[in-house]
Design goal:
Distance between the termini: 16 Å
Order of helices and strands: HHHHHHHHHHHHHHH
Number of strands: 0
Shape: globular
Largest sheet: none
Radius of gyration: 21 Å
Length: 330
């Protein structure tokens, strides 16, 4: 994937976004780099460090929710009181929480842990599940529901129908409770519904969701003549911004410039054509098919591939920290 970004620099139009895009894509080299020197004996230590990091982020997130400190006074904290995602945005933090919750469940299911540790991890799992609805994003809760059902299908083959039914009821109950008791989640769901109604009835795209739909809707003009090789690394951003400005005047791209396509598949297709799209899909496929003797890697990587394949429909994954999450389990 990184090689494609570099090769497609040849003949590009000098877009100001190119340097940042190449920089972010370089993070996908980390799994290969770590693979050369990390001994499998230390995987559990790496896992432990990741768990500690996520627990710390949980504490910060809840502290934000309770307004225990002013996030503007602390460098590196991106969250706000109404959207307590301490790292990056709520969408990426929701992804991290969803995969972390599933990882905790796998650990509790397979590891022969001390009773005290089991209780502590169970409490953390519950608090993470609550927080995924408080953090403000829609992606995290949806991913969590899909990952729970996917885990049952992939790994709980005995009494699968029973488990699937129970999990479906559980997911519906969690989502219903979150909608009625979490103001943040309730607001986000209602905003989504309102955005869909505005797009359908008035053709209005000046919303967060409409912004993304407008990009997808107008990408056809780029792909019509560039479907095979794309426009080149970074050159798709100025093009799509110009097209959206012309076709959707109510989407204020001059006030809120388009920084990315909010869709990894579309980003690959418009930059590198069908070749780049297949290369990106191959990353997900290899992740899904990867074989490992370590139970967590063996069971989590296919779920991580599913989560990435869905997450990248609505946002860009390769922004550094997100790619490093894959590295932890690779």
């Amino acid at each position: 994937n990184f090689i494609i970004h570099v090769v497609w620099l040849i003949g590009h139009d000098g877009s100001p976004y190119t340097k940042q895009i190449v920089h972010d894509s370089a993070f996908m080299l980390y799994p290969l780099l770590f693979f050369t020197f990390i001994d499998q004996r230390y995987i559990k230590r790496i896992l432990f460090a990741f768990v500690i990091g996520m627990i710390f982020s949980e504490l910060v997130s809840y502290a934000l929710s309770l307004q225990l400190f002013n996030p503007d006074n602390i460098e590196g904290i991106n969250g706000k009181y109404h959207s307590p995602a301490p790292v990056y945005g709520r969408t990426h933090y929701g992804f991290m929480l969803a995969t972390f919750i599933v990882a905790l469940f796998i650990i509790l299911r397979h590891e022969n842990l001390d009773k005290v540790v089991q209780v502590l991890l169970s409490i953390i799992l519950i608090t993470c599940t609550v927080n995924i609805f408080l953090a403000g994003g829609r992606t995290g809760p949806i991913l969590l529901g899909i990952l729970v059902l996917s885990y049952i299908i992939l790994h709980l083959r005995k009494k699968q129908t029973l488990y699937t039914f129970a999990a479906t009821i559980f997911v519906i109950a969690i989502f219903s409770s979150a909608y009625f008791f979490s103001t943040t989640f309730n607001t986000r769901v209602n905003q989504t519904i309102d955005s869909i109604v505005l797009m359908d009835s008035k053709g209005e795209y000046a919303t967060n969701l409409g912004y993304r739909v407008a990009i997808i809707k107008n990408s056809g003009e780029i792909l019509r003549d560039n479907w095979l090789f794309g426009l080149g690394t970074g050159d798709h951003i100025p093009q799509i911004q110009e097209i959206v400005s012309q076709n959707e005047p109510n989407v204020q791209v001059k006030l809120i410039p388009i920084q990315n396509m909010h869709n990894e598949y579309l980003g690959a297709l418009t930059q590198f054509g069908i070749i780049g799209l297949l290369a990106f899909i191959n990353i997900l496929y290899q992740l899904f098919k990867y074989q490992s003797n370590f139970f967590l890697t063996r069971e989590l990587l296919p779920l991580l591939a599913i989560a990435m394949s869905l997450f990248t429909l609505v946002d860009i994954f390769t922004i550094g920290l997100g790619a490093l999450l894959v590295t932890v389990f690779y």
